[in-house]
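Hey, resending since the last one bounced:
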Amino acid sequence: MKPFIDKADKMMDDLTQKMLSYTETYLAIIHRETGLEKFIVGGSWASHMIVTVLNEWDRCDDLNEYDQLELVANDIDVFYGPFATATDSMVVDFHDIKKHEVTGFWELNTVKCHSLSAWGFLNNNDLNVTASCFEVDFTTDQLLTIKASPRFWEFVFSAKEERTIKVVDSFDYSRYGATTC
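The structure tokens again:
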């Protein structure tokens, strides 16, 4: 997976800037509707936005061999709660998941967690195609940080005919607190 990770690392600063210009309005709506200052946006919407930006990126050396793809999202999942170190296991509070109706906006779901971190989210994610997230922090100058697993980058940067949606860890399904349908 090293070539895929290297490609993502090489373009991460530019990708983050482009992503911020695409998502800043959405993030402001999430902030306004939930009142959250720091949160993680994870799953299908984050993945959808990453490939949307890559698809519209002016072709450069980094994307010469990129086969465009379309990923569909139907909602925005926002994870919040006490943040922890990347080594702590994230715990989802299944009794505190809420839908927020926002007219003219994506379906917005908030999910309370304990020991929250971007890497904890990614370690609890079961599919390569949704193994990406945005860490959002309205209290700092760095509003948006993109995080994704190596399996996500492998999926995105593989040739079209080689792309397959896979379980991230096929050896131990029991480690996932929830699974993607």
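The first strand starts at residue 38 and ends at 42.

Sorry for the duplicate.
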